[in-house]
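Please discuss these two lines.
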Amino acid sequence: MSVTDKQRAKTRDVVAEGLYIASAATRLALKNRILVHILVDGDDFDSDAFLADAREALLGLADEAEADAARTESERKLARGRYSDSGGTHDYRRRDVRNLRRRAKQSQHVARELRARAEDEAELRKLVADARDAAWGEVSNNIDRSLRISAARPDLDADYDRMRGARMQALRLVDLPKLRAHRRSVAKQQALRAEGVAPTPLDRPEGSPALLDELE
């Protein structure tokens, strides 16, 4: 593959990545509008109602790509007459002219493709459908999470009775002995203080925080 072919392939990759990012941003914007439309306004979903929003989002991103191309082209023209060392990342010099020209062309390619997609109804409907699926996924996940929290009751937990014995055994064999040892140490410290001796501070015993707070 020649150098020119490699550069063209790289340009195609950069343009494809730019279009992918633009599509993702459009879907996100549409998803948020769909959620507001359905959940806040209480209206039924109608894909036709969001085609204009999809077109507007794509055209806005095309405007941004064209502005980036114009800015890059201005930087390229300024860089042509600079031969000194660069003072920073965006302080371009003569050696950067080729890369700046390529970047400007890439942004122009992205802008043209976005404008073409904005006039393609099939593309717009696909974006709306993808955004609808994303909105439903977010809503269904929230519903599932809420139901799981509401259903977290002992009488609805199939393993509650089986695990209750294990929890009570751990309480008897671990938590209560540690608590008794801790209380003996506290009593010993109180006796030392009564005798005028400063005891070593005790660490809080490990165990169930709720149990220890309740029993101490």
User: Anything to note?
Assistant: Residues 204-216 have pLDDT under 50 and may be disordered. Helices lie at 3-40, 51-79, 97-118, 121-150, 160-194, 209-215. The chain is about 75% helix and 0% strand. The two ends are 78 Å apart (CA to CA).
